[in-house]
Specification:
- By secondary structure, the protein is of the alpha/beta class.
- Helix content is 41%, strand content 18%.
- The chain is built from eleven helices and eleven strands.
- It folds into two domains: 182 residues, Rossmann fold (3-Layer(aba) Sandwich), CATH 3.40.50; 114 residues, Rossmann fold.
- Helix 1 runs parallel beside helix 9.
- Bound molecules: adenosine-5'-diphosphate (ADP) and 6-O-phosphono-beta-D-fructofuranose.
């Protein structure tokens, strides 16, 4: 392929810019023309194609968000929307498309592939909710942002002898809560994949004088419920004051970590290499520390497995 396009779609994630930069520079560097599409899949329908050059991606590897902008696009779920996109891609002579986004965006890329337009997916979401890859782009940075917040909240909870519920993002996936709970020393981790009742939460918290703890942190994944509801329930069950914090959009922003810049760069280069060989309909990921790709239909159909061993380990080491 000689002319390709790249877009970012769905929720933004730190490291998307590193991936765009790698696609543009590696593509042009190996003799291709590269177009950016603004506002994700919506931009395909609205004909928002921008020719990129080496300087279009200067000074962005360290920036969160996405220079191409992102959007959610309900019209892309319709065959008419997908056909409009292909008309525009073909009008610009584009032969292959790289979609950086989460599982929803991958459904869009899969639809294009099924209509015969070669598309490659790069996993860009803080949620880490894609089964075929060990890590998604943005997850590591979001974890570090959450850990920073836990450390700060811990200081004040400890001084005032209080309990804090910290609600984190992740949609239906508990990975942000699991990893940050483990690494932030949370006494309790509440995730959608492994239900626990209020009795267990009280027991694991250990703040009723039985194990000497006088403050605590509960990491709650948004997919498992609201912090305010848990706070009301827990307040009736512990002598300590219970506070709650919803971390919100700070988890999606910020300068990408070393890991996310590395992943963005490697994913981007791998995707361009596939298109340059005429290979489409794949999704790029990392498995056992190796960058790899797999069939887009197969990969999208995989169900993510929750790491219950890690969960149980976290529960024991935080007592
Ligand atoms: P993410 O990619 O981060 O998971 P969303 O789930 O919001 O974010 O999906 C992003 C976009 O992907 C949607 O706004 C829509 O344009 C497209 N999309 C989602 N599901 C489908 C589908 N079943 N078919 C085609 N496109 C889809
Ligand atoms: O998928 C990323 C994510 O940040 C989720 O963790 C969260 O549930 C959702 O997006 C929020 O979406 P929006 O940007 O529409 O508020």
């Amino acid at each position: 392929m000689k002319r390709i396009a790249v877009l970012t779609s769905g929720g933004d994630a730190p490291g998307m810019n590193a991936a765009i930069r790698a696609v543009v520079r590696y593509g042009i560097g190996t003799g291709m023309e590269v177009f950016g599409v603004e506002r994700g899949l919506q931009g395909l329908i609205d004909d928002a194609f921008v020719p990129m050059n080496m300087r279009s991606v200067s000074d962005i590897i360290q920036r969160g968000g996405t220079i191409l902008k992102t959007a959610r696009c309900p019209e892309f779920k319709t065959v008419e929307g997908q056909k409009k996109a292909i008309v525009n891609l073909e009008k610009h002579g584009i032969e292959g498309l790289i979609v950086i986004g989460g599982d929803g965006s991958f459904m869009g890329a899969k639809a294009l592939s099924e209509h015969g337009f070669p598309s490659i997916g790069i996993p860009g979401t803080i949620d880490n909710d894609l089964a075929y890859t060990d890590y998604t782009l943005g997850f590591d940075t979001a974890c570090n942002t959450i850990l920073d917040a836990i450390n700060k909240i811990r200081d004040t909870m400890s001084s005032h002898e209080r309990v804090s519920i910290i609600e984190v993002m992740g949609r239906n996936c508990g990975d942000l809560a699991l990893y940050c709970g483990l690494c932030g020393g949370a006494e309790v981790i509440v995730v959608p994949e492994h239900k626990i009742g209020i009795d267990d939460i009280v027991k694991f918290l250990g703040c009723n004088g039985d194990n000497g703890k006088t403050s605590g942190i509960i990491l709650l994944a948004e997919g498992a419920g609201r912090a305010s509801d848990l706070k009301d329930e827990l307040s009736k069950r512990t002598p300590l004051a219970v506070k709650s914090t919803v971390l919100g959009y700070q988890q999606r922003g910020g300068s990408p970590s070393c890991r996310d810049r590395y992943l963005g760069t490697c994913f981007g280069v791998h995707a361009v290499k596939l298109l340059s060989k005429g290979v489409g309909n794949r999704i790029v990921g990392i498995k056992d520390n190796k960058i790899y790709d797999m069939d887009i239909v197969e990969g999208c159909a995989m169900k993510k497995k929750f790491d219950i061993d890690l969960y149980e380990m976290a529960q024991i080491v935080s007592r």
